[in-house]
Structure of histidine kinase:
Amino acid sequence: MLRKNSPAAKLILLLLACTTYLFSYADESTNFIHVRAESGRQQTIATSVAEDSLGYLWLNSHTGILRFDGYDYRQYSNSEIFGKEASAASILSLLKDSRGDIWCVSKKGSISKLMSSEKFSPQYSNITMLAEHQTLESVYVGSSGIWLGSNFGTVIGQSLADSTIIRFDIYSSNETITSITEGKNDIVWFSTNKGRIFKGNTSTRELTELKGPFNNPFNTTILTTDKNGNLWIGTELYGLFSYDPETETYDHFHNKAKASHFVPTNMIIRIFRDSKGIIWAGTDGGGLYQVNPATKEVRRYTHSKTNKFSLQSNTIIGLGETNNNDIWVFTNYGNINILPSESSTFGYYSGSLSGSPARVLSILKCGNGNLWIGTDGEGITIIDKTGKAVQQFAAKTNTANGLTGNYIQALVEDENQNKWIGTYLNGLLLYDTKTNKFSSIKAVNKVGQMATDIRSLFIDNKNRIWVGSNVGISVYSLSGKQTAFYPHNKNGLKGSIAEVFLEDENNQIWIGMIDGGLFLFQEEKKLEDSFFIPFQLVNTKNKPENSISHGTTDDHGNLYFVNSYSKLLKFSTKEKKTVPITGFSNEEIHGVIAVIAADSLNLWVSRVNGISHLDLAAGRSYFYSWKNGTLKDRFLSGSAAKDKDGILYFGGVGGLNHFDPSRIKKTKKELRLRVNQLKIVNRDAEELIPEQLKAGIEQIKTLTLNHKQTSFSFQFSVINDHLDPNYFYAYRLKEFDNDWITTENMRVATYTNIPYGNYTFEVKAGTKRNVWDIQTQTIEVKILPPFWLRWWAYLIYTFLILIISFFIIRYSIMWARLKKKLYLKELQNEKDKELYELKMNFFAKMSHEIQTPLTLILSPIENMIERAEGNLLLRQRLQVIKNNANRLSRIAMELMTIRNKELGKLKISVSENNIIKDIHKTALSFMEQARFKQIDFNVEGVEKEEIMLWYDQQKLEHVIYNLLANAFKFTPREGKITIAVTENIEERKAEIKITDTGIGIPGNELTNIFNLFYQSKDGKAIGGTGIGLALSKELILLHKGEISVESELHKGTTFTISIPTGNQHFGQDEFAYHESSREEINETPVLPSNITQELRELIPDENKKNILIVEDNYEMLLFLEDSFKMFYNVRVAQNGQEALSCLSDYKADIILSDVMMPIMDGITLCKNLKEKKCTRHIPIILLTTKNTTSSKLEGLKFGAIEYINKPFNVKELLLKVNNILDAQRRVIEQYRAEILTDCKELEIESPDEKFIESVLQEIENNFEDPEFRLEELAVSLNMSYSNIYRRFLSLTGKTLVDFVRTFRLRKAVPILFNHNLTISEIAFKVGFNDPKYFSKCFKKEYKKTPKQYKLEYKALSSSDNLNPDID
């Protein structure tokens, strides 16, 4: 027994004498937020939480320590927390001291502190030395130090300021220290599992036991202290106590349940004091208690099966608090319940008597302080002044009291405190307060139709009740009598139903209609005669924009409405129009469900996901989501109210919120964005660059990577919002990314193969899309180049360069003279090169300039030779002039060929030819010279009539001619020259040998004779240019052949040309298409001496054709004019531009034009003529000194019919012009006859003949154009193409396509006979794009190829010349 005067006895007597406080409490309907802790994607059970300075949450769980950033959990192993050498004991506790440091303690005494680098560092390794069976069971971090409670009755304290260690021992080895806390004046309290509590003095080291009603060896106690130093005691058997150390008195917070069995709420297993000093007590099965130490007010939170926002379990296994004062409640089975700190400012009602969340459609705060809540399907719930749900009216139940419907859409209270209720499906009801009964009010239109959808109710200043329903607007007196009815779409009223009734400060009544807009009630003396004035909120015909779903007034002349697009609109009653709501973004005034004006400067709106405060004065918007205590589910339109005390109510799917706007904080939470994970080449950066991450990845400002670490990724997040971090992110790597990359769910920026250099990684975040209101984080990233590109490598390179430069400079003096000589030589080479280019250009110009005078010389000489038949001496001298002029022409052409070779433009155009025939033809040119010099000139190998080789006739003829000319030049009289042709079938080549008995070539000069401009001594003496042999070698090489020389001085020289047989060694561009490159008739035509007279007979004066001559050389122009004027009507022009001008008033039958002319050349003239419909039919002959195939093809491509080189034979030119014009005339006559004779035997009348003539004329004008399409006939004939096609077929029996093809082939025949053109040139001339296709069509039409057809014609012509008498 206790002694009478003992302190314990006094304490008990004092305890019995004290009046025990009996505290009433009620279950709180607060919205808890529920989350779950995860480890490896599996739910785990957490027991405590602490938030560090960065905003990370650290949780102690059954699987270990977890770090949570709001998105992901990361688990830390024991080795990461306590070091690799620490024991594998389980973690006892994770707690935070008053300075914000986080400590982690294991059951075996390992202690670690979380550093700013987000890494744990082991501390106080020698504080405890525990035996195998000894463990720590409790821990507390206070202002004086860290306290550890064991399972053997010892408490150990480690000072945080120094190495001081304090021990308190109760000397009970089987008693466990269950709880430790600090009090005032150096006092430390601790309790045990046997119902004992001890007080230790850290200064005096005195230890005393506290005696009280909780002492019981089977009663486990836990402790905490409040801010006043009072001790709070939680027990398993007796509930909650508070102890005042100064008065040594107890307060007992016990459950007064009358049941005789065990009461769960007495079992306090967790106790916690938050930063505000509130005491939280968690029970085993009895829920959670919140006690205010100052007022002794108790609030209770329990689990409700019908309320998903309640605690998930009534068993509390842990309590904690985060930096923003959110309370975390850990319940069994791994559930975490979070009570946001701001939830105390946003009140919550479930809307039902059971506590189950109801859909709230209407809200009414009554005069007696009760709150009426109209629900969607659950009737009416009444909340009393204390916040308790005290009554519920539900139709078809024993609590109905006359209520006929449970869908309550509108509630109002009249001055008699009677309630008017608008329902869906059950019409209008009136609740009589005195009888506590509901009665129906008849709401019908004039035809007796019942109102089934009462959407809105309103009481005006005259105590009239306005009812908006599906049949119209009704007005009632307080007695329930209907005094007026206004149907829809009458009296100026439009729309389907009245959603909003508002009364402004001038007592004007405004009605907001669905699908109708805004209306002002204009009251007349007789209420039924009143009408409505419409106003448009938005000037549009789009009904939803003017459809009103909710509204409010600020009593200062402004009305605020929400339209069907959830847009907030402001209407001025003074200006009678909608005015803008300034200072807010488009997003801030959209997405509105309901609106309430707290005053003229503050609007509160409910949204789908929360409530917003619009501060109209500041132009700022503040948003409060479920994390701040608002409903997590959607708010509903029309479910909003404001009572006389200024309290606002917003209802939604899961109940309703109520709050005092003046108590809501306007400050926005400071959110912190951090980069919290870095991976390099798909590995954790901690493994690769730990030295750079000593301060933690969150603190890193610069990052240095080597050249193998060019792929990396950053993970980032807003880390101090853990409840629902729904943020938008954007990032970029400056100097690599030009634009920001925006993301919402992906919080990882990955970069691969980034070049070395300096970059800046930037990441920003925002609470809304494109609103970046969270501070940007940056990391400077430096990727080092490879070691061979580092600065020290460049230093080494510089050192080496300096050494090398030293030696270069040292020896540069020795080479100065040599360099000077080299420079002078290079300068000389540049001059030689310039001189060489001038020489090449000179060759080209001279070749062109020489050919024109030669033409003027040769043409008259030919005429003079013919006329000098009787004067042999004159004829011989004229022949000498002609021969030398021809030689001069060949030299000019040789110069042009050399220039092309030097410029890389020398090309060949090979075809298959008979080499025997071509050599024989060339040899004939030297027969007269051989006879004159009495040289024995033989052609050997011609007994074989034919050796077919692939070569360029013109180029090979030039080579053979040049070699023969040299042979005759250096062979004396009575010498011998032989040209022999042999074919070596085995070696697949043909050889041409030219042997002479001339003076020979010295051996030391043989290697140089093929060099350009090289001349031997004898050559210089005899004369020459030094060009011929060099050009001959180049031409043979182009044929993939060889040329060699053998010579013996004073005995003679042999030149051997070897040419491969076949054509496989030539490139595709070296072929003259698929036909022979030229089908030339080089023989000079045998002209009768009386050609002039014959031409006069051929062309009578009355049939003279018109010819246009275009030539820039005045003398040549006069010569040509003189040559043609006796046979044709001649018109002259000196350039292409003049020629085009002449053709405007002169109809030319044929045009002769030079190619190279000023202002407009001949090629451009051809283009212009062929583009015009009126001139495209005129044949054109081009005269030029350009002898290349490419230049000829270019002229023929653009419409020229013949291409004649200067110098030319004027007689040959006269005959060609005559033949072209004659052939053109004959073809037209022939086709005209064929058209009329080839047609089917139809009786063609005059219109059909005219139609045929028109078609023929159009084809004649366009056949040369390869791009001509038959569809173009439709335009010129003014008929559709299909009609032309059918009519032509019916008249001629031929299709247009076949006819045009035959027309072009027959046009080609006279060109083939009369002009020296290749098959390809003829094909282009008559409108074929493809020479192969032309040959194929020609063979199909004439049963012979063009070549065969031409050869037969030549043979026939030769036969006619030999037998002139034969017809």
About this structure: The mean pLDDT is 84. DSSP finds 24 helices and 78 strands in the chain. The first strand starts at residue 33 and ends at 39.
